[in-house]
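Recap from last week: sequence in, structure out.
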Amino acid sequence: MPRSEATTRLCALTRTEKPVTDLIRFVLGPDGTIVPDTEARAEGRGVWITLGREAVAEASRKKVFARSLKAEVKVPDDLAGLTHLRLEQRFAAALAMARKAGQLVTGAGKVKAAIESGDILALITASDAAEDGRNKMAQARRALEYAAEEAGETAFTVPHLELLSSDQLGLALGLENVIHAALTTGAAAQSALDKGLRLVRYDA
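Predicted structure tokens:
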């Protein structure tokens, strides 16, 4: 079965079979250094580790990569931190694609309007946002979820991601002073949300 079609892989650390969505792949770079393959598309043999900062750090300490690849490898001092950075960059790039596709809005007014209309897939707030602004958006989000629950949509929730700073959001979106954003509906928005939730799970 091609790698892209595989649904499970063996975690080299725990030696347990898991869905690929619960794992992250690492490969050997040209210089013999282990690098995260966040897209799971790089050529060559890979090592799959449970998705999580602690799992990656433990795999580094226990020399799991060298043992799995049966080769001399160089492991970065902070592979867990590097992996976080790559996942973060992947999320930022996906947000840019969502904006390009017209599936991301920014600014308190537009975000609040998206929440109130129900045309929202996820709420995004800068990690360094002021408390009052964060609370206003959170209240609007909770009101939407409550209204959906009253209408019988008990499973309806709006994820709230606070993963990037205002500067990071601005750099990703080509804008200045981005504090509030919302992913609306569409494939690009869903892809960005999936990548954001993957980063959340990694850092949990």
